[in-house]
Amino acid sequence: SSRALSSCSVTCPREKTKDLKTRLGILLHKPELGHKTGSSSKLQLGSRRRDSSRDVLEWRESFDQLLKSKSGVNAFHTFLKTEFSEENLDFWLACEDFKKTRSKTKLASKANRIFEEFVQSEAPREVNIDHETREITRKNLSGATSACFNEAQAKTRTLMEKDSYPRFLKSASYQDMSRQAASRGTSKRSHT
Question: Which terms does the record give in the GO molecular function aspect (predicted)?
Fold first, then answer.
């Protein structure tokens, strides 16, 4: 019974978190429960004037263009939060930051933190990768190099590019941003 208690203390909070995410997702998509699909509750991404019109329009050219833009990453992250899948982008960004680490000591500690937070089975913010990739990444930790997350990062990136990115481009928030950017571009040309 002490084994059952220790098992529950490890898995129950995670199960509760995943259950809560599911329940919040259901609530988010029910207009009668406070989430309106009208313009007042859309992501307030279109109001960010610091985004240049060209940047916003370039995001639809390729996923790479989106990831190169700080405001694009922020807009995409905000969108992913509405889908409860921001951990994919957070993991990708953590890997990009990890690759810049030069200290061997920091490299090992960062690698363990990233693995525990995103990669290990039942991690608090577990990304959706296959068992084989998870095991390869686990083995890579023993001799942590800046490349130890490359395979997991690539799979997560592909998942975002093929799944979340097209939905982002079709989202009301991006459509609004795109229309505003296009109209700003048109008005600038008519004044010159």
Answer: GTPase activator activity
